[in-house]
Amino acid sequence: MSKTIDLTGLRGGMVVSCQAYPGDATYGSEIMVRFALAALEGGALAIRANSPPDISAIKQAVKVPVIGLWKRVYADSDVYITATRADAMAVVTAGADIVALDATARRRPGGESLQEVVSYLKRETDALLMADVSTLEEGIQAERLGFDIVSTTLSGYTPYSPQTSDPDYALIAALSRSIRVPVFAEGRIHTPEQARRCLENGAHTVVVGTALTRPHVMTRKFVDEISHVRDRSQVERG
Ligand SMILES: CC(=O)N[C@H](C=O)[C@@H](O)[C@H](O)[C@H](O)COP(=O)(O)O
């Protein structure tokens, strides 16, 4: 699959992000493939995945578009989602149809500029480019640089964007009014109602991760919520 991917096929639909970190009980490419297959059974139209091994395993198991990224920590930069040209190329080589990259204006590892990375990928690959942004300005700039999709992924994860527990509906709406490329709503979408509200605010497609593919995080949310009641009833019982 290459640039022939028709993004209109994803309009109004859902992407499931299948990611786990070393140490998670769900860590490992085989399990990510299972999550991806389950997502497709449920009607997801594409998969988002992290790291070349997971991308390649999922690509072999599914026919839908795969959005790939590679999260890596660099000592000289806060950028960690497909931070370098080399990381982006590894994602493409693993088979991603769409490469997601941090598209903030922050300094990148080794001082590479976002513009250089985008120009290089446009010249050397057929993959579509998805800009993970945290503000309206970053989204507008990403469209100017030639990104094919802008996603609200990083809202709440840069120090200068709103830190909320909800999806950033305001950013989704502002981007949808201001740019022509498809706007994906991503980040803290935990319920079907929230996903629907993202679309009602202008999102082209919604991306859901944690609520579906990080069961330990969701379990913790339940446990934390009910623990207040349990603590109270224990105090009352003496
Ligand atoms: C900020 C960051 O690093 N986001 C990552 C991007 O790939 C993933 O950890 C998220 O799971 C993904 O964006 C989906 O969001 P949520 O898991 O909230 O549904």
TrEMBL record:
The reaction(s) this protein catalyses: an N-acyl-D-glucosamine 6-phosphate = an N-acyl-D-mannosamine 6-phosphate
Gene responsible for this protein: nanE
InterPro entries associated with the record: Aldolase_TIM, NanE, RibuloseP-bd_barrel
Gene Ontology MF annotations: N-acylglucosamine-6-phosphate 2-epimerase activity
HAMAP family on file: ManNAc6P_epimer
Family: Belongs to the NanE family.
Species of the source: Cohnella nanjingensis
Keyword RNA-binding: no
GO cellular component: a single term: cytosol
Pathway the protein acts in: Amino-sugar metabolism; N-acetylneuraminate degradation; D-fructose 6-phosphate from N-acetylneuraminate: step 3/5
Functional summary from the UniProt entry: Converts N-acetylmannosamine-6-phosphate (ManNAc-6-P) to N-acetylglucosamine-6-phosphate (GlcNAc-6-P).
Assigned keywords, A-Z: Carbohydrate metabolism, Isomerase
NCBIfam families in UniProt: PRK01130.1 (NF002231)
GO biological process, one term: N-acetylmannosamine catabolic process
Protein name, UniProt field: Putative N-acetylmannosamine-6-phosphate 2-epimerase
Enzyme Commission numbers on file: 5.1.3.9
Chain segments annotated as transmembrane: none
